[in-house]
Write a structure and sequence with these properties.
This protein has 306 residues and is α/β, with parallel strands linked by helices. The chain is built from eleven helices and eight strands. Helix content is 38%, strand content 16%. It has an eight-stranded mixed β-sheet with strand order 1-2-4-3-5-6-7-8, with helices on both faces. The longest helix is centred in the first third of the chain and has 15 residues.
């Protein structure tokens, strides 16, 4: 790493270590709040930056939302990108989107539903876009990338389950019991952990995620857990993609770093590890932004420099 690169890393880490406690429901300055119509319904969206600039799409996973990128979006926008995020169908302010809106209507939230929504969202703006999938949304993003590579300029997996099939089998400590848990039980355990603040997040963040649960549909959460218990294996197809790929993960993630490293090697991706848990976008946004910007340059040497 060059001296300038090392200094940029030092500054990013220092900024991450001094993150303030904020009102997570309050969009960053300049954010355009809107709704986008997708196959499953209306999806709540944040957009930040100049739409004429290269496009970045950040998508959070189960029970997450666009607000999870509160610090990351302005950093990428300030670096010359048009940054967007939306709530997955059934989650937070997209709670009105669901399988009953499909034609024909369906009973459950499925991987196909989430993939089709993401494809339509990407088709609705300049493409290809730099795509980040956080946790479960990484499973969705992988399918989008292999089905529609024309829409994806680079692909970042943030805390994404690194294993196909029963993806919870590799989770630290609880993995051996994963096969015994139903999707509903897995959803309930996840919800309990968040509401009980087992990760010791700051008061502002805790207040927001507890309030967010008032809107996120329990059936959407349960169905996402079902999908993650039978995740598709697309590693060979991901490896065949010519776009740059990255795995970004906290050293205290739900899955061991060795499993994330195996996944990264299998698909031909770089890997970055941060001094956080499952949510580097919340706890290490500036260091994550630094690595994403470097990835964007690999995709397009004419992209704004890091």
């Amino acid at each position: 790493m060059s001296d300038s690169g090392a200094e940029a890393r030092r500054v990013a880490v220092a900024r991450d270590e001094s993150l303030p406690d904020v009102d997570w429901a309050d969009p960053p300055a300049g954010t355009v709040v809107s709704m986008v119509v997708a196959p499953s319904g209306r999806l709540a969206t944040w957009s930040l930056g100049d739409p004429a600039h290269p496009r970045v799409l950040l998508v959070a996973g189960a029970t997450g939302s666009k607000e999870d990128f509160h610090f990351l979006m302005p950093e990428l926008a300030a670096s010359g990108f048009f940054v967007q995020s939306y709530d997955l169908a059934g989650n937070f302010q997209s709670a009105g989107a669901g399988p009953w809106n499909l034609d024909p209507a369906e009973e459950h939230y499925t991987l196909r539903l989430f993939v089709d929504d993401m494809i339509v969202f990407l088709e609705g703006g300049s493409a290809p876009a730099h795509l980040l999938g956080y946790s479960f949304a990484g499973v969705v993003a992988a399918m989008v990338a292999v089905e529609r590579p024309d829409l994806v300029a680079s692909l970042t997996f943030l805390g994404t389950p690194p294993d196909s099939g029963q993806s919870f089998a590799g989770v630290k400590r609880l993995g051996p019991f994963a096969r015994l848990a139903s999707p509903g039980a897995a959803a309930a355990l996840m919800r309990w952990g968040v509401e009980a603040n087992v990760l010791h997040v700051k008061p502002g963040r805790l207040a927001f995620v507890r309030d967010r649960f008032r809107f996120t549909r329990r059936d959407a959460h349960r169905d996402i857990m079902r999908i993650m218990m039978d995740a598709p294996d697309v590693e060979d197809r991901l490896r065949a993609l010519s776009i740059p790929k990255a795995v970004a993960v906290g050293e205290h993630d739900l899955w061991p770093i060795e499993r994330h490293a195996r996944f990264a090697e299998s698909i031909g991706a770089s890997i970055s590890v941060y001094r956080t848990g499952h949510s580097p976008c919340e706890d290490a946004p500036y260091e994550l932004a630094l690595d994403m910007l470097a990835l964007f340059v690999k995709a397009d040497p004419a992209a704004p420099p890091v």
